[in-house]
Specification:
Keywords: Membrane, Transmembrane, Transmembrane helix. By secondary structure, the protein is mainly alpha-helical. It is about 65% helix and about 5% strand. The two termini are about 30 Å apart. The relative contact order is 0.15.
């Protein structure tokens, strides 16, 4: 049985720390695809931590990880984008709440993958819409610049989610499946 998303333990805190550290340390790796925008494989970590540990852990790990990355790479935090990383991971983590979804026990169905895709894509674009509005209304950035960034980042994040994130969660669940055709001969 999966733990509640509201049950906090030492494992939960350690998981958040590991997720944030991994996301923060790997977010600088990417291929530039536009103005202040990169194709970043680390987006898959948001999908993995969200799906395996739930939306709360995903949000906190994504947010803190983005803050860490901003401090390391720029020395300045872009709070709207940091919150956007948390929002993305939280949406992806909604699959954790799906009935019968338990990758730790190898329980994953095609319907779960479809739900995961819907949650992930909505999360990516909802987070980017939030970051876009935050940059314009709080940070005073020009709208035309930010819209190009948001669309480019959305397409890149969706590609990484499909190519790395979904297969990683699916493979993890398949690896944990107990019902194999192997038997022990005596």
């Amino acid at each position: 049985m999966k733990p509640s998303i509201w049950k906090w333990s030492t494992r939960t805190v350690v998981t958040i720390g590991i997720g944030a550290a991994l996301y923060g340390a790997t977010s600088w790796i990417g291929i530039s695809i536009g103005m202040n925008t990169q194709l970043r494989p680390s987006i898959a970590l948001l999908a993995i931590f969200g799906a395996l540990f739930g939306p709360v852990v995903g949000f906190i790990a994504g947010f803190i990880g983005h803050v860490i990355n901003d401090f390391i790479t720029n020395g300045t935090v872009w709070w709207g984008w940091a919150l956007g990383s948390g929002i993305t991971a939280a949406f992806m983590g909604l699959i954790y709440l799906a009935k019968g979804f338990n990758p730790q026990d190898g329980e994953i169905r095609k319907a779960h993958i479809l739900q995961f895709i819907v949650y992930g894509v909505i999360g990516i674009f909802a987070a980017l819409a939030f970051s876009y509005l935050f940059d314009i209304y709080v940070m005073g950035e020009p709208g035309d610049k930010v819209v190009v960034q948001a669309i480019t980042a959305g397409l890149a994040n969706t590609a990484v989610f499909f190519i790395l994130g979904i297969p990683a969660v699916w493979a993890y669940a398949k690896r944990n499946r107990n019902d194999t055709n192997l038997s022990v001969d005596s």
